[in-house]
């Protein structure tokens, strides 16, 4: 089955700096890659996703890039703010998997004011 | 619009007691439904998923079971709780067709004492 590795496990950045989280996946047939943000004690919420026919997608301060050849994808947060502090999860799936997402282990991001 | 309800929000149960967590989805038909568990400070572990009434797939052998008695109702149960069953339980839904991100419920924090 699919295996998703996520790095780093923790990330501390100064407010205003950029944060980058990287994920690798094992199944070359995976074609959908969402990112979730989970604030302390809350549910994970979808913040951005990318499909395999696209190399990059942006939404205001967040962007995701996908390298299908290398089987890795990354989340980029620019101009970080204290409210960006949370745990971020990447995930991957493919059509044949019945939309079962395989999640990475999570990255705890702390934005220091 | 679609909404997902999950209850209770918190639960403290003694070892050996039964468990029933309920999740319902509104505003959609034939959703895919999922139960995830998140141990403290850890990632998301898929426990069960369902593509239709009475259709349950188990991802990991465990002390828990799931049922889907109605199209938009998903129940997580246990006959006898173990200490290791403590965690944050999340229900989620996705559309039945294609691949897409999940919408998670608000979660149940279960503490087995």
Q: What would you call the shape of chain B?
A: globular
* Stretches with pLDDT under 50, minimum 5 residues of chain A: none
Mean pLDDT of chain A: 94
Count of DSSP-assigned helices of chain B: 0
Percent of residues in β-strands of chain B = over 45%
- The end-to-end distance of chain B, rounded to whole angstroms, is 38 Å
Biggest pleated-sheet summary of chain B: 7 strands, mixed
Tell me about the biggest sheet of chain A? Answer: 6 strands, mixed
Mean of all residue-level pLDDT scores of chain B: 92
The SSE string of chain A, one letter per element, is EEEEEEEEEEE
Biggest chain pair contact, residues each?
A-B, 23 and 22 residues
Counting copies of identical and different chains, the oligomeric state is heterodimer
Number of helical segments with 4 or more residues of chain A: 0
Helix content of chain A: under 10%
Counted beta strands of chain B: 11
Helix-and-strand structural type of chain A: mainly beta
What is the helix content of chain B?
Answer: under 10%
Radius of gyration of chain B: 13 Å
| N to C succession of SSEs of chain B | EEEEEEEEEEE
């Amino acid at each position: 089955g699919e295996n998703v590795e996520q790095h780093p496990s923790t990330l501390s950045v100064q407010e205003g700096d950029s944060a980058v989280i990287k994920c690798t996946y094992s199944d070359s047939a995976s074609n959908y890659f969402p990112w979730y943000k989970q604030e302390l004690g809350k549910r994970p919420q979808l913040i951005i996703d990318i499909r395999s026919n696209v190399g990059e997608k942006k939404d205001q301060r967040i962007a995701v890039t996908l390298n299908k050849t290398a089987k890795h994808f990354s989340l980029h947060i620019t101009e970080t703010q204290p409210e960006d502090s949370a745990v971020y999860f990447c995930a991957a799936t493919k059509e044949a998997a019945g939309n079962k997402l395989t999640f990475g282990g999570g990255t705890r991001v702390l934005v220091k004011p | 619009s679609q909404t997902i309800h999950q209850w209770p929000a918190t639960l403290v149960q003694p070892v050996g007691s039964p468990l029933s967590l309920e999740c319902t989805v509104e505003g959609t038909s034939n959703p895919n439904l999922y139960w995830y568990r998140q141990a403290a400070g850890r990632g998301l572990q898929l426990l069960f998923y369902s593509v239709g009434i009475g259709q349950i797939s188990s991802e990991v052998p465990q002390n828990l079971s799931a049922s889907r008695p109605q199209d938009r109702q998903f129940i997580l149960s246990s006959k006898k709780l173990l200490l290791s069953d403590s965690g944050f339980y999340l229900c989620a839904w996705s559309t039945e067709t294609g691949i897409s991100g999940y919408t998670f419920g608000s979660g149940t924090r279960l503490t087995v004492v």
